[in-house]
Design brief:
two-stranded parallel ribbon; NAD(P)-dependent oxidoreductase; 7-stranded parallel β-sheet; alpha/beta; 11 helices; about 300 residues
Amino acid sequence: MSARVVSLTGATGFIGSVLRERLITRGVEVRALARSRSAMTADGTKWISGTLEDEQALAELTRGADTVIHCAGKVRGRNARDFDEVNVQGSKRLMEAARMSGSCERFLLISSLAARYPTLSWYAASKFEGECQVREAAGTIPVCIFRPTAVYGPGDRELRPVFEWLLRGWLVTPGKGDSLLSFLHVDDLVSAVMQWLDAPVMQSQTFELCDGQAQGYDWASLASIATDIRNAPVRHAVVPAKVLKGIARANLVLSRFTRQAPMLTPGKVNELMHPDWTCSNARISAVLGWEPQILLGQALRNHLY
């Protein structure tokens, strides 16, 4: 592995914690940003206390690092500003710190397939603009952007309830339920990152990643997977789009009083009802030789979620 020192954000989160453990196991020196001291595990990581708003902490994080991997991101927010502060401005500040360090040879941004459709939601718009800001601030540093589909695995709190209910025999779908979906296990995503680290420094590129299921999944195929695993039928309930949108609007109103960022917002409903979340691994496979190993059915059968 060519990396000597890796600076990592989001190191205590779902994806970042798995990546941090893999890097440490491979003997890489890891510097990681953490908001809370309680999250700083004694595993060999050099922890930097701070946030993406703290320019001094970012300077310390990136000082002497030849590689920067940006996993941190905001997935919930009450307005566009909530997302932009982290996903756009925070990403830009990190890239500027990496450039100013004088040691960064390459930068990896873990974005989202949602960035392909920036008009869908505040989240999608912030991921797309974050990519733009990172590329503009990079100077001569090569920037690689990963756009994974819905990532799941141990430690995930968003998709796990969906899969648990599915394996109990219940599938709840939004609207007409005719969307095409795709998924990616966190271990496969981390393996892609490791192969990027093993590869020679390359020119700036953007890659989309999924588990390789041809044509992705529709809701019927998810029900079929669960039926095979359970050896029992799956009940299908449809929540009308109008109901979802009403709940989402109510969540935003309620959030003004609770100050809590809701998960279901009008933008999230747009994401849930988008007709096509499939992608191809052809480019990343050709460039990095990466191939996913875990299909969704295998993960559900073996409780790898």
